[in-house]
Amino acid sequence: MDRRTTAGPGPGRRGRAARGTGGLRSALPSDIRRRNRQTVLKSLYPDRWLSRADLAKLTGLSKVSVSDVVADLIDDGLLVEGGYKSSSRPGKPAVLVGINVKGSAVMALDLSEAGLVRGIVTDLAGHVTATEEEPISPGTLQPTVLVKLSRRLLELSPVPVLGLGVATPGTVDRGGRVLAAPNLGWTDMDLAALLHGQLGVAVTVSNDADAAVFGERCFAGGTDNMILVAIARGVGAGVLIADHIVRGSDYVAGEIGHVVVDQDGPACVCGKRGCLETLIAAPVLEKRIAERPENRDDILTQAGEVLGVALSMPVALTNIKDLTISGPSDLVGTIMLEAVENTINDRVHSRFINRVDVHPARLGRQAAALGAVACVLRHELGVL
Ligand SMILES: [Zn+2]
């Protein structure tokens, strides 16, 4: 998820944002500074300790630039000195610098669950240090609920907060505006600007499946080419290619729930028949299992086969081998996952195309919130 959304002051605490990006022009000193900061932070993130001389060697920046940038980042509380480099040479050993992981915090809100908004606070390495929930009733979600919950999270953080990430269902544009989120009753809601105005922190807003795939990538050992399919009230997907979230021309990439997979299938709320959601959404599967509990394994196998058939072509098209399925654990278990994996590999595997690995979301219910944290870290610090 690249420069997806922002309403924040830009990189660093002093708001050294690059000004304007249109047209041809030479790099401004502020652009170079920003790039150098990102290069140094990236070299150290999350837990590498290097001397200034080693940082210069590693990054290709001059020793003077590195000293300058490191001093700035220490000032900003993002880097910290610690320990000395062991050396057999005589003289003063070099001081090591590293990321001040606990010196700043990131907040995130996950709006994807029915009935509650989940809030978390993490350190800069994505370790959760506090959680808060706010119950919500069905219907339109009032942004004041999010402001209130965010303020509670801010109070829980004893260190400065780098930014707030929000994972929301629906379509989100590059600027953090929610174009449509029917489940929340939102159309054209400029969420990033609204929250930034109320809270005064940098805000990034992402689609929940996009956030979840990025969370799995950054904090759960995911690869740089991944698909995450979320089976919930609906069915959606996040797609990561070469470490970039694929958003598509209208920001609706991954909205696979209303693609027809069975022309003779059940009627769908969208007016078509046999959309993927009508066959494998969580409430559909739960209802079918409740009606015929003895057929549970068959129902889940069939659902896995339907999803496997649907995903075979995009898997071949993109050569993605890492496929994550998230959803309620009583549905998304071994039976369904094996059916998805076998179905895809039966169709796609060949001399030219390796087998696809299908597994559950490693971060479980935290995937979207942690992904929103990762978006803030990428946007504000250029790491991840
Ligand atoms: Zn539909």
UniProtKB/TrEMBL annotation:
Superkingdom, natural source: Bacteria
SUPFAM superfamilies assigned: Actin-like ATPase domain (SSF53067), Winged helix' DNA-binding domain (SSF46785)
Region (Disordered): 1-29
PANTHER family: BIFUNCTIONAL UDP-N-ACETYLGLUCOSAMINE 2-EPIMERASE_N-ACETYLMANNOSAMINE KINASE, ROK (REPRESSOR, ORF, KINASE) FAMILY
Family membership: Belongs to the ROK (NagC/XylR) family.
Name recorded for this polypeptide: ROK family transcriptional regulator
Species, as recorded: Bifidobacterium favimelis
Lineage of the organism: Bacteria, Bacillati, Actinomycetota, Actinomycetes, Bifidobacteriales
